[in-house]
Specification:
two-stranded antiparallel ribbon, alpha/beta, Rossmann fold, binds S-adenosylmethionine, globular, 8-stranded mixed β-sheet
Length: 263
């Protein structure tokens, strides 16, 4: 169900968002991101787009019913694979942006919270390149299994899937990312408390260097509140509100800057 809050935010974003293709942005860093990563199609080759289309198509043909236990919504039920993809997977526009953000950032490691069936994982893994490991966490074991077999079938090998609750897995993740340049995609458990908890912990080990993409930043008032507070955090230097997604950057020595960009 779409909240009134979300519709209001969409209208506000339409009015406030600026700098299509980077015009008028003073910050060289944000200009680069907007011009060459966000509102462009470059950096992405056609092959990547086609590979993920094939991946998605295969899942859309899968009418098997699998048990689902979404630790974010707390709902335990069955779901047809095709319907889960339609409902939960990142769309192509956002997925291509994820792959461009990864390609541009050149991380040592990528962490995805919320694998579902691995569509977002595929964009991140292909965008990062074969030498970068993508750790993707999913609480629903059946989703993980389908994601794993589909990733293997499509030759996407630089992924390690972890099945478990985000909170349980987080301590090991924090150990694994210490001292590394990490890109994080947070796409599960969209509540104010959980978002703030994960982000605070990630930032505590980030050493002033991290790029985080948050999905659904204005899904409801709790997420908008989380986004507002994240923008104010002293460790966070650059924030970019794209309405559907938010980009959070930690860069040592950089000045604080907040943008709402047309995309
Ligand atoms: C929106 S879907 C992810 C979509 C995926 N990133 C993609 O683009 O295809 C969110 C996923 O996060 C998982 N999830 C939510 N809360 C979780 C938690 N606390 N621990 C582990 N997994 C969780 C759900 O089971 C669900 O599959």
């Amino acid at each position: 169900m779409i909240h009134i809050h979300y519709i209001t935010k969409c209208v506000q974003h339409f009015v406030k968002a600026k700098h299509w293709r980077g015009f008028g942005i003073h910050s060289p860093y944000v200009y680069h991101l907007q011009r060459h990563v966000i509102s462009t199609d470059k950096l992405n080759d056609k092959e990547l787009r086609q590979r993920v289309r094939k991946y998605r198509k295969e899942l859309l043909k899968n009418k098997n019913r699998i048990p689902l236990n979404d630790l974010g919504t707390g709902k335990a039920k069955d779901g047809v694979v095709a319907k889960i993809v339609r409902r939960a997977a990142v769309d192509e526009k956002s997925g291509m942006l994820l792959s461009r953000l990864a390609a541009d950032y050149k991380p040592d490691m990528v962490i995805e919270f919320g694998t579902s069936l691995g569509v977002g994982t595929a964009y991140l893994a292909l965008g990062s390149g074969v030498n970068v490991e993508v750790l993707s966490i999913e609480g629903s074991p059946e989703c993980s299994k389908v994601a794993e077999s589909t990733l293997v079938k499509h030759g996407i090998e630089n992924v390690k899937l972890i099945t478990g609750a985000f909170d349980d897995v987080l301590p090991n993740i924090l150990e694994a990312i210490k001292g590394k340049q990490v890109m994080v995609y947070l796409d599960g458990n969209h509540t104010y408390e959980a978002t703030m908890r994960y982000l605070t912990k990630l930032i505590s080990v980030a050493d002033h260097n991290m790029r985080v993409v948050l999905d659904d930043i204005h899904l409801h008032s709790g997420m908008s509140k989380a986004w507002k507070e994240i923008c104010q955090m002293k460790e966070v230097t650059t924030t970019i509100d794209l309405m559907r997604m938010g980009i959070v950057v930690l860069r040592s020595g950089a000045q604080k800057e907040q943008y709402i960009l047309r995309w």
